[in-house]
């Protein structure tokens, strides 16, 4: 377990994956909405959050199917043009989940496909982060996964910090947590003298 | 159940701007705790069922066992989510002492629970006692200033205050030359700004 308190990791594990139960389990009826009794039967196909699926897989209770976001359709779109694929709506934690799911489903191609995708999109996200303006939200931002948008924000804020350093504005500022009514005006002034 | 409420709780945190606090979500937090008790009850009843059948609880691997495992895992998961939620808030609260200072404005106070306010107070006291032991103010700007004095413009009426040099009346829109160390807390609270003329 990487970091017990890491919120991104916890949310990544919240993503649903489809599993097939290899044994029966009693008293957990709510898991399977199609089940009439309070039990899950052998062979039932259920969507479970990854944290549960992973633990049950290691106890050989379930077998994991390849989630749809790592299906052939996605890879085909990525081969066409990686930068334009909307990965966020597929899965906001695309890479992280992919790395964790790959050993469970025994699909060897997922790893190399993920690397191909990341390499194709990395440069693009970083360059756009450096070049983009500081006030507007760019159009492609909703296509990025969580990790990519963090990369984008890092590039954008480092560029802002560089510009501010070059202009030599005030080092002392109102704490950003206290709302932004005055801060935003001051920041704009510092950036566009 | 099965960690869904706990996931909602954390998603709310992830959606908010990083470094900013939201009000403590009592309703959802209590719901997660209710989920925990529910899982606990189910877990106990499944364990009892196994024992009633005269089976060894350590080695049995029947459908009751797997049901119990799922409830057990859900309990642990909920615990992790609640801990992460609290830890995230406490990290922000600790950073407030450095960014804002000893006194928190009303708008932030409202977002904290009573125990979080106590935590802030105690953390603040611990930091202050450490700084007085070192005889060094750690929360001021890390870059050495070129001039110990700074021109500031007052943004809101502060009134009469006792600064290290003398007693001063700080009225709105007035410009003063103050010691940097005096001005810094006011600037970080948003009551003054550096006057670059």
TrEMBL record, chain A:
Gene Ontology CC entries for this record: GINS complex
Entry-linked InterPro entries: GINS_A, GINS_bundle-like_dom_sf, GINS_Psf3, GINS_Psf3_sf, PSF3_N
Residue ranges constituting the GINS subunit domain according to the UniProt record: 74-165
Main location: nucleus
Pfam families: PSF3_N, Sld5
Domain of life: Eukaryota
Keywords: DNA replication, Nucleus
Positions of the DNA replication complex GINS protein PSF3 N-terminal domain: 5-57
Compartment annotation: Nucleus
One of the GO BP terms on file: mitotic DNA replication initiation
Membership in a protein family: Belongs to the GINS3/PSF3 family.
PANTHER family, sorted: DNA REPLICATION COMPLEX GINS PROTEIN PSF3
Protein name from the UniProt record: DNA replication complex GINS protein PSF3
Native source species: Aristolochia fimbriata (White veined hardy Dutchman's pipe vine)
TrEMBL record, chain B:
Domain annotation GINS subunit: ranges: 64-134
Subcellular location: Nucleus
Superkingdom of source: Eukaryota
Pfam families xref list: PSF1_C (PF24997), Sld5 (PF05916)
A single Gene Ontology CC term: GINS complex
GO biological process: DNA strand elongation involved in mitotic DNA replication
Gene3D superfamilies, A to Z: 1.20.58.1030
Stretches assigned to the DNA replication complex GINS protein PSF1 C-terminal domain: 146-196
Alphabetized UniProt keyword annotations: DNA replication, Nucleus
InterPro entries: GINS_A (IPR021151), GINS_bundle-like_dom_sf (IPR036224), GINS_Psf1 (IPR005339), PSF1_C (IPR056783)
Sequence similarity: Belongs to the GINS1/PSF1 family.
Protein name: GINS subunit domain-containing protein
């Amino acid at each position: 377990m990487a970091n017990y308190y890491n919120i991104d990791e916890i949310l990544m594990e919240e993503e649903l994956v489809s599993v097939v139960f290899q044994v029966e389990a009693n008293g957990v009826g709510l898991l399977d909405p199609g089940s009439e009794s309070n039990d899950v039967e052998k062979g039932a196909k259920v969507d479970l959050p990854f944290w549960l699926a992973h633990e049950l897989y290691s106890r050989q209770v379930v077998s994991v199917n390849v989630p749809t976001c790592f299906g052939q359709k996605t890879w085909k779109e990525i081969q066409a043009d990686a930068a334009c694929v909307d990965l966020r709506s597929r899965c906001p934690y695309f890479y992280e989940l992919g790395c964790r799911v790959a050993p469970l489903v025994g699909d060897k191609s997922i790893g190399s496909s993920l690397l191909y995708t990341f390499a194709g999109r990395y440069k693009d996200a970083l360059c756009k982060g450096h070049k983009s303006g500081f006030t507007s939200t760019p159009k492609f931002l909703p296509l990025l996964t969580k990790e990519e948008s963090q990369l984008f924000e890092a590039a954008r804020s480092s560029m802002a910090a560089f510009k501010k350093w070059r202009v030599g504005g005030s080092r002392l500022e109102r704490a950003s947590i206290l709302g932004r009514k005055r801060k935003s005006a001051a920041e704009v002034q510092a950036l566009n003298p | 159940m099965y960690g869904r409420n706990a996931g909602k709780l954390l998603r709310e945190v992830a959606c908010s701007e990083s470094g900013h606090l939201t009000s403590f979500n009592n309703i959802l937090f209590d719901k997660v705790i209710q989920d925990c008790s529910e899982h606990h009850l189910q877990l106990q009843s499944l364990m009892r069922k196994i024992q009633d059948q005269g089976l060894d609880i350590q080695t049995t691997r029947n459908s009751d066992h797997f049901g119990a495992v799922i409830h057990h895992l859900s309990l642990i998961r909920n615990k992790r989510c609640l801990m992460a939620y609290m830890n995230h808030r406490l990290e922000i609260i600790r950073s407030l002492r450095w960014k804002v200072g000893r006194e928190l404005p009303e708008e932030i106070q409202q977002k904290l629970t009573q125990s979080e306010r106590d935590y802030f107070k105690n953390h603040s006291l611990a930091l202050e006692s450490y700084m007085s032991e070192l005889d060094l103010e750690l929360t001021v700007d890390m870059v050495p200033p070129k001039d110990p004095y700074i021109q500031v413009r007052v943004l809101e009426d502060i009134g009469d205050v006792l600064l290290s040099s003398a007693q001063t009346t700080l009225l709105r829109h007035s410009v003063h030359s103050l010691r940097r160390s005096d001005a810094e807390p006011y600037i970080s609270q948003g009551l003054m700004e550096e006057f670059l003329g």
